[in-house]
Amino acid sequence: MSEPVAETPDPIRDAILAGHTSLGIELGSTRIKACLVGEDPSIVLAVGSHDWENRFVDRRWTYSLDDVWTGVQSAYADLVADVEKRYGVRPESFGAIGVSAMMHGYLAFDAAGDLLVPFRTWRNTTTGPAAAELSELFGVNIPLRWSIAHLHQAVIDHEPHVPEIRHITTLAGYVHWRLTGRSVLGVGDASGMFPIDAATHDYDAELVARYDGLVAATAPGLNLADLLPDVLVAGQPAGELTAEGAALLDPSGALRPGVVLCPPEGDAGTGMVATGAVAPRTGNVSAGTSIFAMVVLERPLDEVHRELDLVTTPAGDPVAMVHCNNGASELAAWAGLFGRFSAAAGVATGSSASADSDAVFDVLFREALDGDPDAGGLLAYNHLAGEPIAGLTEGRPLVVRAPDSRFTLANFMRAQLYGVFGTLALGMRVLADEGVALDRMFAHGGLFRTAGVAQRFLAGALAAPVAVAETASEGGAWGIAVLASYVTYVSEATGDADEPDTSANAAGRVVAASGLDAYLRDRVFAGAPIQTADPDPADVAGFAAYLDRYRAGLAVERAAVDALPLKGTTA
User: Fold this and answer.
1) Of 55, 251, 430, 485, which has the fewest Cβ atoms less than 10 A away?
2) What is the span of the domain harbouring residue 444?
3) How far apart (Å, rounded) are the C-alpha atoms in residues 397 and 512?
4) Higher-confidence position of 10 and 216
5) Model pTM?
């Protein structure tokens, strides 16, 4: 009888079976993605995804918590299936797990852990009075979407659930809490709930005290420090996957508990990690349903600006954030319309007669390259929701042109792409006026899958070089997987500890806070293929002309909001 033939060693398969991998899960605005990396976090081993959408219910943007778990489980199952297809095995454990999600918003729970009101997302703009009062009280800009603005608006409005609140968090914090039993947040995500003290990397204690004093009479017993999640920096362990959490993530029962989790982070922080932009004079732009820029600061800003948030990197370093509620959704709607026309006309844009989405985007984006530098006098407003930077409480998507505008498909598409960057550019002009310098901006998100188009126009809009890495389309799911792997790295360097009062954990906090940039440079992005687009002078001048018209045309947008009220509540 012949001896059995030994299988050829497969390092990736062996690493998966041994749990030497890191899993990242990010809940974006239209897609929940899962991403698996190996011992080399720069290499993506497998991915999974699940599409979902927010709902507009009772004039508020929301997601149901049932949809959260249906989507997380679906994305995880899709990733497991991808692992099995590629490597012939199914993972039962991981070296570390990370959860990321859309920042800000309002999830309030009672003492039993029950949700008190439907999740209020970052997209809601109903917190104007609260944000204005808090900005004056704190001396820093508090945007409408911040969690503290949502909480204080509920206090101002005397909402009946306020006395029952025992815990508030973000979407990432909620998912992490259910998986581990720990109410914690990464400092980047926490900085979108409440201002952070740059020295302590924790909530600003003086401002917490000011808030408690403000609401002492109207909401007695509402002690803010008791309601907010604990704050951790990147690299610190943030709990372990419980048996209940494992069953919630993987109802099949194959996933074993005990996996360490990194601090849950917001999509802004994972975008910074996914682009390696966590050092001063660097920044990144993340484009999806929303679009925002993160610029790491060398020094404090001279003034308070309503267009800018002051948040942090996942390591706690100060960042100026330009956040716009409206990103690429309107552009995607137009691409869908053109794709449907192509299919109805029987014109193949991809491998079949039906229009493939990526192929439609590719055709339309490349057509935009032939447009005039100023988009021929056309304007496109992408405002589906309110846009605080533009002074809009609600959105009305518009295309505007004069009779003498050069109305071509190329100009139309260039105007749509410029429109994605329009409000962002308004905020970035404020940073430029503050003297903030940039060596390079990194970009990520599906908008940049068509090489060289959106990247080129963004470089023109910002008048700065824009870099895109091969991992750009993986975005935050890969970024949080990298942050999960960073926990393993820090634990190996300092000893494994999960209690905040141990000397090993104190050392880990120091290493974690100071070493993230070096980790990304040396272990993640060293040698990574990066394409950089320098600003074309014609694009810079053309976009500047577009932005002047865009700013003037906002009066048309405001008039449209007043003249065209929404028909009513939709779901």
Assistant:
1) 251
2) 329-471+531-563
3) 43
4) 216
5) 0.83
